[in-house]
Amino acid sequence: SAQVTVVTKEIPSGSMKIILSDISGKEIFREETRSQQTVLPAEDLPNGIYCCTLQLSNGMCVTKKLVISK
User: Fold this and answer.
1) Around Cβ 21, how many Cβ atoms within 10 Å?
2) 1 has a pLDDT exceeding 60
3) Residue whose C-alpha is closest to residue 47's, from 23, 70, 22
4) What's the N-to-C CA distance of the chain in angstroms?
5) Residue 21 and residue 61 in contact, taking contact as beta carbons nearer than 8 Å
6) Alpha helix (H) residue ranges in 1-70
7) How far apart are the C-alpha atoms of 15 and 57, rounded to whole Å?
8) DSSP for 26-60?
9) Which of 28, 29, 32 is nearest to 17 (CA)?
10) Is 20 exposed, middle or buried (0-12, 13-18, 19+ CB in 10 A)?
11) pLDDT in the model for residue 13
């Protein structure tokens, strides 16, 4: 099965939200975690460009582009 692993070793520990959105901004996945490694389900995602946003407990956000190509 296809999956994407988000690793956040360089981000300070604490609660964070991981949000996966498609290029139009539609939210596909959201999870609150304290883990430095989170697996996102990608088997049902069509090929395309997505945004993976980390919302940290201090209010800071980090967004990275994610390309799915199977």
Assistant:
1) 17
2) no
3) 70
4) 11
5) no
6) none
7) 6
8) -EEEEEEE--SEEEEE-TTPPSEEEEEEEEETTS-
9) 32
10) buried
11) 67
